[in-house]
Amino acid sequence: MSRKKVLIVDDEIHIVHVVAIKLRNNDYDVISAENGAEAFKLACSEKPDIIVTDFQMPVMTGLELVEKIRQCDQIKDIPVIMLTARNFAIEDQQKEDLQISQCLSKPFSPKELLENIEDILYHKAVIDSRQ
Amino acid sequence: MRSVRNLYMIVIAVVAISLLAGGLAQWLDSGTEEGTRFAAYMQRVHVASACCIVGAVGVIWLGWYWLKLAGAITSIAKRLKADNIMVPRLRANDKPKASGNALIDELSEAVSGRLDGYSKLIGRLEEQINDLQIQIQLTQHQKGHIEAIIYSIHDAVIVIDEFDRLLMANEAAGRLFNFNSGDSQHKRISELIDEGKSEFTDFLRHSRQNKAQPTRKEIEFSKDEELKTYDCIVSCIYDEDRQVCGVVAVLHDITREKQIQQTKNDFVNHVCHELKTPLASISAYSEMLIDGEADDEQTQKEFYAVIQSQAQRLNRLIEDSLNISRIESGLIKVNKEPVSLTMMLEEQLHMIKSYAEEKNICLKDIGQCRIVFDQVYADKDMISQVIVNLLSNAVKYTPSGGSVKIEIEVDETVNIARLSVIDTGVGIPESEIDHVFDKFYRVSTNNRQAKGTGLGLTLVKQIIEKVHDGRVFVSSSQGVGSTFGFELPLATQRYRGTEVQRYREKQIINYQ
User: Fold this and answer.
1) What was the ipTM of the complex prediction?
2) pTM (2 decimals)?
């Protein structure tokens, strides 16, 4: 089974670093970006299996990134986990419309994030196998 | 009374008969034919009997007339006496007097009593009229006073009757709804207030119709091309029968309060976000260490270092937030004294020197800056923090090989000392330059360049402008560099000399 690729998007280098270590230790390939614009380019070129993005970032926010991804046919089905320091920043309707798989509030647990990633990828694999 | 009347009538009759008889006798004695003929005729008539009959009829008629008159007078007197409002009652033992004089006296007394009563009544009525006139004047004065108060209230006040017609509106209401408050009385409120503000008229109508207790509602109006929020309080006016006879509305402009509330909410949200960011790192790295994800010593050290730096960042953030809050609320303790800006700059340059060298940034010598004692009257610690913030920002955002130059100028024509920090750093886009002193604002393109709380420059502005009545300034060109600085008023003459004295004392102590 091939290693899954995770794109981590955050302007906080320490967060990217710690999540990357956690995922690499658990057999994931990790690529990272500092903002939404950079992440979109990377997502188009690298086609990651899942994207973990911060909500508030310079240049392009996490929400803008997801909106752009959902409009791009090549990468529109990539599941997204949103990390946010503001609990009420994303409304349920918005979350549903943009098909955001999970929202995790900062400070978050890397272990919990890993479990979420595994769950989402498992369900996606099941759905893909049925199609 | 009656006997007097009869006697009077008999006398009158006798006199009349005597005169008649005398006249007849004279006429008969005159010897005329008519007289002779009449005398013959009269001889056949009983003259005395006829005279007696005429006299009796006259007496009866006069008696009847007199009696009628007396009865009328008695009746009037009785009615006057019976009037218990104006005339004093006759005493119980007073007996009606039968004589005519007594009746007249009684009537006179009754009329006099009635006149006295009327006189007293008129006196009382005049007093009441005077009282009423005073009350009217007092009421008018109070009305004028209340109107003056209502008219001078900054809030808009509108009073309408039960038919939605304007009873009163002050000038503020006129300005808000664009009508002349002086000549709009009794006009329908819907005619005075345009449809764009119908939410208010609907609210008034609804409150009146529902006889609601005082109710309030926030209503937004567009005024002077600006959206303003008003706290509208409406109360019904009740008459004696507890029926609603009008409505009074007071509209208080709460736009500023709403903005402050929004700013506070934004600030709290921002602080939470900024606090959570380093906290997230601390939490994640701690968990990784606990879970044994950092297997080698080097990685563990790296994790500890991150935790430490993020904890320091958290502390800085809290300190800066508290300092800004203290300055804004005026609770910070300020120790102003005459100080030399140049000396403070030298001290801070010394502290930042190693950081600049680490980044290979040249700090331009300020040797040419003349040390002037007692230059400015300021809180030394606060101004030192301002200088540190400006210097560290300049070094932080200047790439390796760049330079940071510091200038101090004194302009005695306008009594100010100016400190400028000029760097050859990344610069700030023109669109963002107005926001660099805003709380938590970080120039988006420079965000990755260096870490910061977004409060450093806010603190600089607060210290300079709020605490020291100075001014901050910034100019920048993206890719070329930025100039940040501040101006402080020069210390007045009375403070000159105190710092020199302190400096000398310090030198003596050091020497000893």
Assistant:
1) 0.91
2) 0.58
